[in-house]
Amino acid sequence: MNTVTLPKVVIIGGGFAGLNAAQRLAKLSVEVTVLDRKNHHTFQPLLYQVATAGLSPGEIAAPIRGILKNNDRMRVLMGEVVGFDLERKLVELREGTDISYDYLILAAGATHSYFGHDEWAPLAPGLKTLEDATEIRRRILLAFELAERRASITGKAEPVHFVIVGGGPTGVELAGTLAEITRNTIASDFDWINPRDTRILLIEGAPRVLPHYPEDLSHSAEHQLRKLGVEIIENTMVTSIEPGLVKVGEQVFPSTVTLWAAGVAASPLGKALGVGVDKPGRVIVNPDLSVPGHPEVFVIGDLASFADQKSGQPLPGLAPVAIQQGRHVAKNISHDLRKEKREDFHYNDKGTLATIGRAAAVADLGKKLHFSGFPAWFLWLFVHLMYLVGFRNRLLVLIEWAWSYLTYQRSARLITGSNQLPGWAQQQTLHETSEPSVEHEKKSEAAD
Amino acid sequence: MNTVTLPKVVIIGGGFAGLNAAQRLAKLSVEVTVLDRKNHHTFQPLLYQVATAGLSPGEIAAPIRGILKNNDRMRVLMGEVVGFDLERKLVELREGTDISYDYLILAAGATHSYFGHDEWAPLAPGLKTLEDATEIRRRILLAFELAERRASITGKAEPVHFVIVGGGPTGVELAGTLAEITRNTIASDFDWINPRDTRILLIEGAPRVLPHYPEDLSHSAEHQLRKLGVEIIENTMVTSIEPGLVKVGEQVFPSTVTLWAAGVAASPLGKALGVGVDKPGRVIVNPDLSVPGHPEVFVIGDLASFADQKSGQPLPGLAPVAIQQGRHVAKNISHDLRKEKREDFHYNDKGTLATIGRAAAVADLGKKLHFSGFPAWFLWLFVHLMYLVGFRNRLLVLIEWAWSYLTYQRSARLITGSNQLPGWAQQQTLHETSEPSVEHEKKSEAAD
After folding, report:
1. In angstroms, what separates the C-alpha of A446 from chain B's closest C-alpha?
2. Full-model pTM
């Protein structure tokens, strides 16, 4: 079944970097194995749409097996990598077997960082996986249902509070979309509460939101967010996250739902390689994307620390970087096979886009070409639709978007899993509701 | 805000029965409150499509709030009912408040029954909620991923075994769809295993599958299932369900994934009313759908035991029964308001349909009109599409179906949540794999 003489390439991670490497390697005379803990590729730029009930998980994810079309030379395995033996050229799986390689491509991506406060994780979920997204969706929708129920008991409507920690692209997207939902989608769906009274607070540590964007676009984003009703606090670090509240020094902000969009940490598999990593744990790679001392080992995507030739700064963790690096690694392996010289990687920056809400976005297409509002949003929509994996998803997502745009509705307003929010009981105590009966809280329905 | 003089109707349950009652009552001068534990209505006839990765949860469910359009006279509350005080006309909520009513419509539906073996529940999930469906989907897809991984370690492919307990419509749908998936959709997606070798076993206690259908259609269903490669055992009760296996007396069947499609039990809220119930716990209702001694209390849908005038048997738990009863209750309340005489409920049986797979189904449209195969399947598709709540869902589902039909693909092949199967370790022991490394099993990633 196997052509045993072919070089064996093992790719770890089915994200943008790993998938693009695999697709290009499929054209070479190599045997490829793609390993991932999940069975699916997640289109991360649209995760916030799942978290805010606009799209369903199935619309932004596809099975890796389906994308890559298994054959004798391309294999997909679901499994968790726990370590490496670079000398013996082995990948160690948790499931207790080793996989040997001639080339290793590590593209395991990034996860959240709570800056040493891992106890904040259950109180303020971040947005990296489909599970994260449906959990955030659950909390957002449940907040209004619980507020309505409570108001029906006490006769007094209290606003829902959202606090979003981190004003990068994810934080801005979440804040903008939440504003849109509360001002439009569900604005008249309730009787006792008025979702328009919802307070949305975005807290950013840097002096401005979207700190990695040009200053004029940050200001534009801020303006667009404020117009939507989002309150923004900049230059401010959160000091404590507790059930029902967020603290910033002495200031206490009530928070029905707290979302984490602040820190990113590299996958621990970076450190497991045993070569040099930077402060966030990303592996410092050579200009050809291999790691020092191991030309047969490449690290790409969010897990790689690649110094940009122009700025000297590491390239940001963006999909275009990952895609280009994935393709470049395949090209360098091809050079090896033909005994040619490898090429250095150069990032071709076509610009960056951040969306804020319905017809609101910012776009940075190089030094002079900054724009915002509807044109930026339309460009964002077009680009993301084009990159969505698979024709079918693209069509469905287009229909969903057209529907949302025309009707202000969101299609996936489902609360699944537990019917509880962290801090809901505490918040009730905090507000000193005199109603004694509110105290016994609903038991969580453990749904997997 | 409230027109205090209007009669207050409280509806418990946002399924077919409750929703249809609410929609008709919206036209009367009454104040309606709909209570449900979930925020969404689930289109149960298509749950098996979610469980088998054909549709996404968002495509077969919609928020009750969105369907019913809140206004001063129509309210939706998410909450759990724990009891009743029929004398004082109060509904008791777990959240610690009582809701008073002039009319009570109880439409709380049914749940699984494991015939006294509740310990089987985690080993053999049933299919009643979206959470059930995504859990079953997770187990089905994971079974193949784990089998592939294992074969990649041992070099020996072992078939995946599905055992479905119960040959009613749900069991038949699940068995047929699983056969289709393994013979077509994922047939060539794996390297080490061959999904075509998957064994699908359907166990039915009655002498034939679809025991409530006319005999010729049962035989047709059986024939269509066997043609798809499903093994069927009839006249047989499961005696034990254990991790990795199902026992029928002395016979032991290996089972990678066991699914429960056998018993249905009425919601415990039926008994909580304190009036007469039948053996499965359904409330025995008067011909006008009210309960004896309480003309202001109605029970409808799967929770009602209504003796059919023709057969004397209780009406089956089907969507058309629930829909017609919901509308009938609204009509009887309307009669009350006009001081007219109430009408007895008569079920208008337009026939029943069960689907088996791609272009395979059976239809019973009355005494002479039985048909099966493609025409029955097409009718099934049309009827279910028409009843799907909301135009948008209908369009999306139609696209999904057209896509699946043309390409044999399924769109929602996502494994979310834990990466473990119950009994996976045990099954490995059962088969006495000599590979020692297989024994330490992957830790479950607790995803909500």
Report:
1. 9
2. 0.87
